[in-house]
Design a protein that fits this description.
It is a single chain. The protein is built from ten helices and nine strands. It has about 230 residues and is an alpha/beta fold. The chain folds into two domains: about 140 residues, TPP-binding domain (Rossmann fold), CATH 3.40.50.1220; about 80 residues, SIR2/SIRT2 'Small Domain', CATH 3.30.1600. It has a six-stranded parallel sheet with strand order 3-2-1-7-8-9, sandwiched between helices. The protein has a three-stranded antiparallel sheet with strand order 5-4-6, with helices on one face. Helix 6 packs parallel to helix 10. It is globular, with a radius of gyration of 18 Å. It binds adenosine-5-diphosphoribose (APR).
């Protein structure tokens, strides 16, 4: 079988597009409390506040453009037969950049799900006219179709990610603190199966100790360096 290459991306790859990360300098969890915004309990208690926060994030993301790091991964997909991106990000910037083989582990901020009729569809309206927004089919309460703390990940996305991680020969870990599971397990699974782990992150993370190559740079510069050296891009 053709060699398989993977990239696991986190909020850090979108930082250079102006989207705040969750942890570290200027991270969202410094200004907001995840348990008050990104949990089913928080939403049940106060859907309006949770939606106000998502509407604010949707506005930031709607103005964000993919950066060079996203574009380099598009080029990698075009040049390698077997390359997949597994992303924890919900901003859709990999797809906006042109990547086709993207697995979204935590859902997508542009998708909504109705709590009454379970319909799921894309809603790009920004800013939202009505908060909380209502289902276009039944008028029921909508929620963001993203994975909140304590919720399980989409079954198919998770199964595929585990399978790919067990069979890859190179695993790029870009812009993630590796603090959230099960995404954080993937590099360890790949390592166990003999893959080469490359971390691109300006800071040390939970993955650093198992990385064969550590590039202490931002995503754009780090990817440029890696691709130039390893794959003579
Ligand atoms: N380039 C590369 N990495 C960067 C950059 C950059 N320009 N700026 C910051 N980073 C790194 C930080 O050093 C940090 O290690 O990106 C990482 C961001 O970590 P987190 O904010 O924890 O984001 P992430 O790892 O994606 O979080 C995982 O946690 O809150 C939940 O569901 C949310 O998907 C998210 C998950």
């Amino acid at each position: 079988m053709k060699e398989l290459f993977l990239a696991l991306t986190g909020a850090g790859i979108s930082a250079e597009s102006g989207i705040p990360t969750f942890r570290g300098e200027g991270g969202l969890w410094k200004q907001f409390r995840p348990e008050e915004l990104a949990t089913p309990k928080a939403f049940a208690k106060d859907p309006k506040s949770v939606w106000e926060w998502y509407d604010w994030r949707r506005r930031i993301i709607s103005k964000a453009e993919p950066n060079r790091a996203h574009l380099l991964l598009v080029e990698l997909e075009q040049r390698l037969e077997n390359f997949f991106i597994i992303t924890q990000n919900v901003d859709g910037l990999h797809q906006k950049a042109g990547s086709k083989k993207v697995i979204e582990l935590h859902g997508n901020i542009w998708r909504v799900r109705c709590l009454s009729c379970r319909a799921e569809y894309e809603l790009y309206e920004t800013p939202l006219k009505e908060i909380p927004p209502r289902c276009r089919y039944c008028g029921g309460l909508l929620r963001p179709a993203v994975v909140w703390f304590g919720e399980s990940l989409p079954e198919d996305a998770l199964t595929k990610s585990f399978e790919l991680s067990q069979n890859c020969s190179l695993f790029l870990v870009i812009g993630t603190s590796g603090m959230v599971y099960p995404a954080g397990y993937l590099p360890f699974i790949a390592k166990q199966r003999g893959a080469k782990i490359v971390e691109i992150n300006p800071e040390r993370t939970a993955i650093s100790d198992i990385a064969d190559i550590v590039i202490r740079e931002k995503a754009t510069k780090g990817l440029e360096q890696f691709l130039a050296k390893m794959l003579n891009f």
